[in-house]
Design brief:
This protein is α/β, with parallel strands linked by helices. The protein has helices at 4-13, 18-29, 33-73, 110-163, 166-171, 174-181, 183-191, 194-216, 218-224, 228-265, 267-272, 276-329, 340-381, 442-447, 472-476, 493-497, 506-515, 519-523, 542-556, 572-586, 621-627, 630-648; strands at residues 403-413, 416-426, 431-435, 457-462, 465-466, 479-482, 560-564, 590-594, 606-611, 614-619. It folds into three domains: 19-72 and 92-381, ABC transporter type 1, transmembrane domain (ABC transporter transmembrane region fold); 412-478 and 560-622, P-loop containing nucleotide triphosphate hydrolases (Rossmann fold); 481-557, 3-Layer(aba) Sandwich (Rossmann fold). The strands form two sheets. It has a six-stranded mixed beta sheet with strand order 6-7-8-3-9-10. Strands 2-1-4-5 form a four-stranded antiparallel beta sheet, with no helix packed on it. It is elongated.
Length: 654
Amino acid sequence: MMSHDWILREEARKPRAVGETLARFWAYFKAYRLVLIAVGLLVVASTYTQVVIPDLMGQAVDCYLTPATRSALAPSASAGAPSRPQADQGLALPAPTNCWFATVDPAATPAEHIAGLGGLILLIAGLYVAGSLLTGLLSFLMAYAGQNVVRALRVEVFNHLHRLSLGYFTRHEAGDVMSRITNDADTVQLAVQFPLISVIQGALLIVWVAYAMLSKSPAYALVALAVTPAMFFATSWFSNRARQAFRQVRSRVGDVNANLQENLSAVREAQAFQREEQNIQTFAESNAASRDASILAVSYTSALQPTLEALGYVAIALVAGVGGLVLLSGQTLFGSTMSLGLIVAFIAYTQRFHQPISAISVLWTNIQSAIAGGERIFGLLDEVPDLPDAPGAVAIPPIAGRVVFDGVWAEYQPGQPVLRDVSLVAEPGQTIAIVGPTGAGKTTLVHLIPRFYDVTSGSITVDGFDVREVTAASLRGQIGMVLQDSFLFSDTVMNNIRYGRPSATDAEVVAAAKLARADTFVERLPQGYDTVLGERGSGLSLGQRQLLAIARAALASPRILILDEATSSVDTRTERLIQRALEDLLRGRTSFVIAHRLSTIRHADQVLAIQDGQIVERGTHEELLRAHGFYYDLYMSQFRRDREFTEAVPVASP
């Protein structure tokens, strides 16, 4: 059998279509198109402020600082100083030719240059403030859309879980399924807010800055962008490995949740069998595996950041070095005139260009984790229910309750039949008792009626309708079940009884409780029917929980009733009380009773004895006893002791 660790490793290595995952996310964002359009406009505006600032910084040097310096250092004509060739005065600084926001007067004084420079600095400061405000607003809008998308995603997953067949939940741990709705959805939620918009904004800034540099000096831009291929290669290499690692992280977190959920549910058993230390050790191992997977993922993302920073410093050094050498030599760079302002602008551009690459590498950690979480969520949504309604399925009308099994075979694993050629007829109002050893197929037989599972061959009809050709909702709405361990919710007694029929009035709930003989103990509870029960009905005895389950079934008023060993885990006195409630509940309904004790068999219209998935005997209780066959042996070894004990114990008053 494949180990859980092997499954996790295979899931982590399995190639996924990242584009497909992102496209599926986009399908949820379509409902917020107007918000996203506003976000897009704000992204463009805020990015523009970041692109134009380096150009203004270059203009500050070429349009104000350089002319002011030249004016301050030039000899005064009135002093009669001889003029010198420009080459003798130091660097050959070209006159400004690209002053968008300034009109430079060659005769301006240094004070006038300083005043103009002050105005330009205020403009740059205003652009910084405007960019921050725009970024804050677009982050809010993105968070609004993202929160709504995650809410819709959780609702869809929860709805889909209710459409899945029981077989899915036998193959997957509850904790892992819960992790997909909680932890994985939280990871997606964090990523679709600030990190996602920052990555988009950073990508736009990279493209825009590259265009700005190329438009000013293509040759100088190539120098500034020389290390970019290495940066993208490093980002791709580290990100691919980080994505695989984060897939394993998400799976390991699901494993931790599954382990935790199981141990919390079984805390009583753990204490009873003194398994605390072993459970702690198992949880520690699961937690350690999650830690190791997280460390591996973080190691890749942590290595990427300094790698990109180092490459960014190399790019700045190239820009400053090449630009300085060209300027000092008085040459051009492949025809591009060099100025001090252009060098300053390109240093700022290079920083602007590489900062988002570095930031994206960090934020990409969140994106990768979100993609891994999204893959797990969409993997759950892609699970096809084992038993969908057939095309053209009709709603079954109100039924009388005639159930026919015709040559039914059933199996969970191919080639391993659980039921073999089972045929039976249950007329409306009859009680069918089903007996047999553990594993004989009793529960499988009754679970085929509401179509929790499908037959492999043969057919099951209810009032002449094949259960595969009617909608599951209309069929199950007319079938009630009382199980061996009935589930009660953390809600009031009233709402627990009303669970199968939400429209029932309080008076109808009380009447159902009286029919189930549950009203006596309910009225003794602190708030009566308004008492809030603990998880799974904690605080009530097993017998009391069964009585509430019977009341729930009675209120739903089903035409077909299934009792799956409903009294097997209670004491004999409580069984007598439950049996009285069941007698009233069964009256007039077609009932299938998986029998554990004689009291549920003696008055059945038919008794089916099942062994190895086959009906080996059928008849009434008395008929089968007289036959001295399989049922007789079962009765003598099991049921007779129950009868003798029951007759020896006085009947408990309700």
